[in-house]
Hints:
The chain has 173 residues and is an alpha+beta fold. It has six helices and eight strands, in the order E-E-H-H-H-E-E-E-H-E-H-E-E-H. It has helices at 18-25, 28-31, 44-56, 103-118, 133-141, 168-172, and strands at residues 2-4, 9-12, 62-67, 70-79, 87-94, 123-129, 145-152, 159-166. The protein has an eight-stranded mixed beta sheet, sandwiched between helices. Helix 1 crosses helix 3 (44-56) and helix 4 (103-118) crosses helix 5 (133-141). The model has no long low-confidence stretch (mean pLDDT 90).
Amino acid sequence: MQLVLERCTIRAWRSDDAESLAKHANNRKVWVALRDLFPHPYTIQDAHEFLHRAISEQPTTKFCIEVEGVAAGGIGIRLGEDVHRQTAGLGYWLGEKFWARGIMTDTVAAFTDFCFNSFLLRRIYAEVFANNPASARVLEKAGFVFERPPQEQRHQRRTASRFTALCQDQVEA
């Protein structure tokens, strides 16, 4: 899959993305807005391990955000299972150098459309920590609607709001 947008390209991860991935992911400002699975500091070894998993997983659900010819961030979904099989959680991040350019809004909107067209999904949701209002604005601009006010995350001292996008036929029904 490759989606060429005005400001970036969404594409499959490649093993040669490791150096750029480690460079942009190893940033405390990026890390504080992400889930605990995202390591900090982010080393070249972390990049190689992530890329090995992302490249080999099927179906592919994690993608690179390429800006100006380099791997500048990532976007992906976690597919639900069993009774949640038509639902997916969305996650994304972008290197600080590329913030405030409209890249993520375009990326989230295009990637959401891709996911609804490529997977049997009716709903995609994203959770945003209270310390990241810019991400909430990205989701709203990309067509997501506010679903749930901030709730404390289990085992964490952070709160997260939930935003949701519905498959178009769900909206029209």
